[in-house]
Amino acid sequence: MRWETRELTGTDPGALLPLAGLVRSTQTPEFAGVTFHEVLCKSALNRVPAASSMPFSWTINPTRGCLHRCTYCFARRTHEYLDLDAGRDFDTQIIVKTNVVDVLRTELARPSWAREHVALGTNSDPYMRAEGRYRLMPGIITALAESGTPFSILTKGPLLKRDLPLLVEAARTVPVSVAVSLALLDPELQHRVEPGTPTPAARLDLIRSVADAGLECSVLAMPILPWLTDSEAQLDALYAALADAGAADVTTGALHLRPGAREWFLAWLGREYPELVPQYRRLYGRGSYATADYRSWLGERSGRARRRHGFDKRPSRRWAHRPEATMPPPEAAEPAQPALF
């Protein structure tokens, strides 16, 4: 059964899941094993809690769950709020807010909207493959730009190239920031640890395309995986490739193991690299973060690679900050890991 062309106007009383606003659940051969739950959302803009260290105040998440299947994904636990699990359900039960553009336009038109910076790509990737079917991002970009709202996009998806003309046009009227997530170059390891993501080569090509279009493209080289992607040679090769692709800035950070992601990642590590499990348990203990000594060591090592490849001579390009926010240099920071990871 292929995608149906159907106007979504109401909720389905016989829906498979008790999701607010659920219109239908659908599957298609193009996405084997995945169910898309199409919902009518009541809001598009999400306020970031004031206590958060994120450098933005608002987010938009057109979807929940993610087809990238990253074993370490920070956002996995958010699926539990929907009575779904943080593991396989996060990878295969995808919530799509089909009316998000219309709702967003209504919210942006309110007199109270202060045109604060909005971030996309904080819970799931707005350019995962399903965006090719739902095409939500062109409307979102246009609505933000027409309302005078600055925004940023974080993605692993080369599908963003489709919307480069829209982004270039938007950047003429509002600040636009594009960031690509790429923390490893080994395609075999990439396929193991984040099996649904585009290849490193495809993401390097995306960085080049963004830069060639005249937009600055930052890179979030996160997460760096202890004993898997943190060697001097690996970090040097990563920074060299990013510099060659035209990245404007790079932010490096160690793996976080928050609840939800922790259980899923450690189970994966036990299958793929069982000899590393005791070392990870010592490094992370019962917490979410690697030890301060490791983070400092990684900061120094990535800082050397950063300087070798000229990123220290480039102005830092980050998402718009709240006025009171202050951030240490990228290689020394304890980054607040974006939810995409």
From TrEMBL:
Residues 308-341 are annotated as: Disordered. SMART domains: Elp3. Residues 52-301 form the Radical SAM core domain. GO terms for molecular function: catalytic activity; iron-sulfur cluster binding; metal ion binding. The keyword Secreted does not apply. It comes from the Bacteria. CDD domains: Radical_SAM. Residues 308-320 have a biased composition (Basic residues). Keywords: Iron, Iron-sulfur, Metal-binding. This is Radical SAM protein. It comes from Georgenia yuyongxinii.
